[in-house]
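lol ok so funny story. i was supposed to be doing the assay writeup but got distracted and ended up predicting the structure for this chain instead. priorities right. anyway since i did it might as well share w the group, maybe its usefull for someone
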Amino acid sequence: MNRIAFSNLAAPGWTLERTVDAVHELGYDGLELRLLDSEPIDVLELASSTRRAVASTLAGVPLACLDTSIELAGAFERALPAAIELAREWGTDTVRVFGGDVSDLDDVARRLEPLLEHDVTVALETHDHFASAARVAELLGLVASQSLAAVWDLHHPARAGESPADVVRSLGPAIRLVHVKDARHRGNDWELVPLGDGDVPVRESLDVLRAHGYDGWLTVEWEKRWHPELAEPELALPHELRALRALVG
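and the output, tada:
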């Protein structure tokens, strides 16, 4: 059975302590950590005291993933090992990364593989230049280690014209984590909306995942940190959980 987390992108104004309390109060199973003190986590700049304080606060809640801003198109050789070590300290076995504008997949694979560890999975999100699951799969196919996997953000492959079946065909067992959100297509743009109000094939995606046997985390990604016009977390997070639970049965 899938466990459901929320990303703290939904509540940029909350302290980490308030966020952890909300996991329990609202009935979520865990948390996905993207922000500290309202800002994206910089894995290279955290003081030891901050790392210990975060670990202590997170001790009462399962951490689905540590979300970083690391881009594989850049120089990740220092940041990625630091993120992997931080994931261990904070109690998760998954680190999310982005692809960025990669021109040479072979070069990325060559630099990436020696940094991968057996106990922490590095998961590349279907996002931005890697919105296509087929492109994510192309890089994964160049790396022998099973410690490189994928985050399926339901929105972005849909924007790229891929169906849920296309995504699962491309990524299959490499899907480590699923980001759930909905959006409405408006001309050449997309507007984020509550689950069930948009054009992202959320139900179809979850059905395909179920048929494939996926039993990993589903994360509600309510992106208020990037879109302050979205509803407040006190309203959005209960709604998204109810809607998602209804979809997964």
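The chain has one domain: 4-248. The mean pLDDT is 97.
back to the writeup now i swear
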